[in-house]
Amino acid sequence: MGLGGKLFCLFMCLLTFYIVGVLLFTKGFLLKRSVIDQNSTCDVKFADRHGVEGESCWMHKRYKKAVLIIIDALRYDFARYEPSINETSALPFQNKLPIFHELLTTKPLNSKLYKFIADPPTTTMQRLKGLTTGSLPTFVDAGSNFASSEITEDNFLDQLTKANKEIVFMGDDTWESLFPGRFKRAFSFPSFNVQDLHTVDNGVLQHLTPELRKKDWNLLIAHFLGVDHCGHRFGPYHPAMADKLTQMDTILRSVIKELDDDTVLFVMGDHGMTRTGDHGGDSTDEVDAALFVYSPSQITATQDTHLMSVSQVDLVPTVSLLLGIPIPYSNLGTIITDLFNYCPWWKMDNKENQVFHTVKALRINAYQVRSYINTYRTESDEFPQLENEKLESLFNQAEAEIQSLVTYYGSTGDGSGMLNRLVKLEETYRLYLEGVKEMCKNIWAKFDISTM
């Protein structure tokens, strides 16, 4: 073989190694799953609608309206107040949102702050998919519409529109590409110029208060980009970050003044940022966002001040049941139980009623997740059989216990020991839901380092 032939063989070998390497890397990096084209409906056997008002579905709604404020890249430590740090020694991102601390201190039954854990990839479009569908979005959602970024998978925006509810949006124009035609009114602004810290935020400011004062919406979404763009341009340690977070604090104070007792406010980050202001991966700084919940009316029966972490997909079943709509079909989130242990229509001064109301919501949540998993299994064999069988056994254990509890109390009226049984029941449903989510995360939402 001549020199030219040897060089050609060498080139083909190198090309083959390159192609194989790229394929292995993308297999580990470009996470994928199948999309189930089904939507939840009110007509389900697992939700007893006895006593549920006409506008509600699966469970009586707690609120008529919700305000969702997304502060893009709001990392958890941007929202957490550190009382030991004085103003002169604080880093640019520390203690610049004191409104959260003030409400948590003065109105502990009306407010909650959580570490809001994102699933990778921590890119805004993928995070918005998770925050609205409750699924674990990946870089490639097999079966989705590749010609468009529109979300066709079941989500709580579509569930609201099907219930004849109105949605108003303002901010990052990504939302209009994901949900075209869903908004009664939309005020969107271009999001790709990361050097621009103010255009999108100022546009939102122009419309936010006037829209809050109108009475023709059920969900208002405002998506601010300045914090994220500040991170990309300067990083979180630059003085510009202090200015931007201080602006957000002022905005939130004005929003809170406009809320009524029938409205619940969610303020959240879609992801965090690294020390250099970047995001997209799965480091702690990138996945640890913040979630703050508040209403002028009581939202919880507990004043726990210890740190709690919730998954970002947990927002979906929580918002859905609080607003009285079905949980989206592909949701893998678990309700934020703090927000379901209080019901203004029940006598909630005893612990049994608090836990029972939580268990009622968890059971509905568990049935919805089980329905999705069973449907997915008919289209894919991705789930480990042994693990799935263990989870199914856990679900059946919870169902047997609740039936036993209801039968015993109904026949004897004896409530002794009920609290302990309810607490165990709550834990069993929670373990089932968390187990399913973890099983799915291991398949869909973790980078395969060995192949990368």
Strand proportion: 5-15%
The end-to-end span amounts to 36 Å
Order of helices and strands: HEEHHEHEHEHEHEHHEHEEHHHH
Query: How many extended strands?
Result: 10
Q: What sort of overall outline do the alpha carbons produce when their principal axes are compared?
A: globular
Q: Taking all residues together, what is the mean pLDDT? A: 89
Query: Compute the gyration radius: what is it?
Result: 24 Å
Number of helices: 14
Structural class of the secondary elements? alpha/beta
In what order do the strands lie side by side in the largest sheet? 6-5-7-2-8-9-3-10
Low-confidence segments, given as residue ranges, are 22-30, 141-148, 447-452
Helix content: 40-55%
- Could you describe the largest sheet, including whether it forms a barrel? 8 strands, mixed
